[in-house]
Design goal:
The protein has a single domain (5-147), classed as Peptidoglycan recognition protein-like (Lysozyme-like). 28% of the residues lie in helices and 19% in strands. It contains four helices and seven strands, in the order βββαββαβαβα. The chain has helices at residues 28-37, 73-76, 93-109, 137-147; strands at residues 5-10, 16-19, 22-25, 47-49, 55-57, 77-82, 117-119. A five-stranded mixed sheet has the order 5-4-6-1-7. A hairpin with a 2-residue loop joins β2 (16-19) and β3 (22-25). The relative contact order is 0.22.
Length: 149
């Protein structure tokens, strides 16, 4: 794949759900199940950032994503999803740190610039609030620029 962008999303879901009477964390495997229930072949995102900042692998990087049709980002953009609904609450600091770490790794690996990082809502043609109104775009931009200065 010729990755030219990194697109940031949120799961727009709770961070935990009840399954078989137990509270379990929403993670990449659960999102994969949700997406496969829609008839998709796999999870739509390449990486999932957990509330504690850890990163789980999603769809392999040698396959186009299923996270943003607008601007052909499924085939040109690596999809990263933060677990949570940031239209309702703020991103935990630890999760933001984990996101920044993963984005810096990807920018370096694919020789991309900080300007190649997009929020789903900012992709031309996308009609969404994703990754949520409380996502700190200014902090992400500042931290990424600091990492490469």
């Amino acid at each position: 794949m010729d990755w030219r962008k990194i697109v940031i999303h949120h799961s727009a879901s709770p961070t935990e759900v009840m399954r078989a009477g137990k509270t379990v964390s929403v993670n990449a495997e659960m999102i994969r199940e949700w997406h496969q229930t829609k008839g998709w072949s796999d999870i739509g995102y390449h990486f999932v950032i957990m509330p504690n900042g850890s990163c789980e692998d999603g769809r392999p990087l040698d396959r186009a994503g299923a996270h943003c049709k607008a601007g052909h980002r499924n085939s040109s953009g690596v999809g990263i999803c933060l677990v949570g609904n940031f239209s309702e609450k703020e991103v935990p600091d630890t999760q933001l740190v984990g996101l920044i770490k993963k984005v810096v790794q990807l920018l370096t690996f694919f020789s991309l610039k900080t300007t190649d990082v997009e929020l789903h809502r900012d992709v031309p043609g996308a009609a969404t609030e994703c990754p949520g109104r409380y996502f700190p775009a200014d902090v992400l931009k500042k931290e990424l620029e600091k990492s490469f200065s």
